Amino acid sequence: MLSFLEILERAQKGPICKTRDWDIHVIPDKVKQKISDYDLKGTYDPNNPINTDDKLADRYFEAGFSLALELGMHCLDTQRTINYEEQELKEAVSEHIQRISYGTRPDDVVIAARRPDDNNVPIVQFGPFAMPISEELWIPIHQSIAQHRIVDMLCPGTLGTIHGMEVRAGTPLEVLAGRYEGRLSREAVRRAGRPNMALRGPQITPTSLGHLAGYGDPQGYRTTDMNVVLGIQELKTSYTLLEKVAHVLNLEAPVHTMSWSFLGAYAGPPEGVALASIAASILLIPTHQATTSAGSCFDARVFCNTGREAIWADSISGQAQARNIDRPIEGIITPISGPCTEMLLHECAAAALGGTVSGRAWLLGVRPRGGRLENYSTALENIFSAEIVKAAARLTRKDANEIVKELLPKYENRLRAPAEGKTFPECYDPTKLKPSKDWLEIYTAARKELAVLGLSLDRHELNVMPPRSVEGGAG
Amino acid sequence: MIEKLAKAVVDGDTEACRKGAEEALRAGIEPLTAMNEGLMKGIELTGKGYESGEIFLSDMMRAADAMQAGINVLIPHVEEKDKAKFRKGRIAIGTMKGDIHDIGKNLVGVYLQAAGFDIHDLGVDVDPMKFVEKGQEVKANILGLSALMTSTRGFQREVVSLVNEMNLRQTFFIIVGGAVTTPEWAREVKADGYGRTCLDAVELCNKLTSAAPPLGQPILIYQS
Question: What is the C-alpha separation between B194 and B145, in angstroms, rounded?
């Protein structure tokens, strides 16, 4: 792989391009050209939301590779483009990284690369991914998810306050919050009886301060956790992100990177969004010095990835990546409805099915209400989604496509006015960490519904150990 | 000729719009007619295309740039009494410090521009004081604050504080939006308004044009 110093040099000396030009001229024009060059126009198939055509997936990869090669990556701070030679990108996608482990014994997990229609079971990295979670509910929400063994890794939310004071980006409060978030999350998995469970983190990192502050405390984030540096859509990075990369490299830990491409924004139709996400996944490997990378698709118009277009774009993109990048590829579940609703479970099922059969090696989520609203997270949608992921590994894309075709009409016309649902304390007992009767009934009904549609979920024990009483706190 | 102007906006062709506007003037077409039936028609069609999913944000932004180029040619020739229709007010808009999300802010900016407001885009990662300074510099009527993260949302509160403490509360309306903002949040930080979607933002700003800051209670629009 190219050295990080080489990347920084290119960020300083690459061709100049204003961000606005990049967004509204360079990206859309080049994406349109690639759609035309590779004869991809009209390949979005609304009648079949999960792609089943390997040759089409490979054509998308070729086009995405070409897009990555011709565009490179834009650096916001220098207003320059980091360009790559063809051989450099070929080496990035062909480097053989089949497995990577996170966490420490006995709570460690191994993520292995998967292919479309792969029967190997993906890892689930669940929790209120980057959602606003209040201080007082932080441990109950995270503990209630981590206590279920079906969840392999925990993904924390973000703190809005620290000891009651509003966190503000780029200030000393972000430094305090980075450590505090790590401590609270570690405390949650300890109380769940899984102290060495891998976390995804740090999450409260609008600048690099929160990231830097999250590590170095044995009771916070560890280098054996998943060290994440996200990209910016479309095909952009920044010095803030490169600072985080530098920090993880200093820690001698692997970097995971990913980027969403947005429907409704700069990359155009579903075909273009799929292409941009593939290009992002390729470019982020050298740019962020990543061990694992991923490109996913998200619908910015409805703030979720559970609509028909997003599921299709994410499926073709995931398949293109899983078949052609020799590394584990991540997927994500972001519904727009809220907990304690049937709609949420339908959305979760569709996204989890699409990601799993398309070859994603691990699934990240679950983010009800588009991940935007405070405390709209419970364990039950995470358990349900994990059950879908584990069961869907037995399905082919063709089978999953038929189920998703049945699921989508149940909710897709409500994506702009979704079922709002309830917050954690409204549908969970925050002390016993058990779902309300209503929420449990909705969950049970959804399981039965999935069985009728052809996906029998394994029985998962909901009655887990009572929460541990602990001494001391996380502060 | 008027149709060509509308098409130039839809195509996002800045040069064609500028030339089309000049040609319209030379042909003796009323500037107001060229604006209403050409430029505004074009941006209206573009907006409909976005709402129906046929076109995308980049097309909208190009169309807005093209429309602006045409307006710049025509507006000096519009009678003073008619100018208000195309100069409803000036809005300094940006994403809060520490936050680099720009898609929602850009989209709102285009919709407001199309509705006749002058948009002064501060970009992303904007310090609270920059909003105030830009507002003073361009004599803004409205400061539009966007936030997509809980750790950046607090800076909206800080802008309100700065404006209050600098005795500018009767100068600017302050409106908030973005993924992590809610009507409750707008009330809490004592903003003048909140809109959930781009269309909400347009309705909100239109309502503010007939009021004077500050409002006792915020105007909250989130049903569209």
Answer: 10
Segment among A99-103, A448-452, B53-57, B66-70 with least mean pLDDT: B53-57
3-state secondary structure of A183: helix
**Which H or E run includes A110?**
strand A109-112
Parallel, antiparallel or unpaired: strands A255-263 and A292-299 = parallel
- Using a CB-CB cut-off of 8 Å, the residues of chain A touching B14 are none
- The candidate with the shortest Cα–Cα distance to A204, out of B126, B150, B145, B96, is B150
d(CA B62, CA A142): 44
ipTM of the complex: 0.89
Q: In a 3-state reduction of DSSP, which class is residue A98?
A: coil
Domain containing B186: what range? 89-221
Helix or strand run (H / E) with residue A364 = strand A362-365
Q: What pTM was estimated for this model as a whole?
A: 0.94
Question: Are residue B60 and residue B123 in the same domain, yes or no?
Answer: no
CATH code, domain carrying B106 = 3.40.50.280
Within this chain, do residues B65 and B126 fall inside the same structural domain, yes or no? no
pLDDT tens sequence across A280-319: 999 999 999 999 999 999 999 999 999 999 999 999 999 9
Whether residues B157 and A166 touch (CB distance < 8 A) is answered with: yes
Of B56, B65, B100, which is closest to A264 when you measure between CB atoms? B56
Helix, strand, coil shares of chain B, percent, nearest 5, are 55, 15, 30
CA–CA dist A270, B56 (Å, integer): 11
Helices (H), A147-260: 172-191, 208-214, 239-250
Residue of chain B whose alpha carbon sits nearest to that of A262: B103
Nearest to B62 among A24, A168, A206 (CB): A24
pLDDT at residue A466 in the model = 47
Whether residue A208 lies within 8 A of chain B, CB to CB, comes out as: no
Domain boundary among the residues B83, B105, B120 is at B83
Secondary structure E strands in A183-291: 200-201, 226-228, 236-237, 255-263
Residue type, A145: I
Contact B58 A27 (CB under 8 A): yes
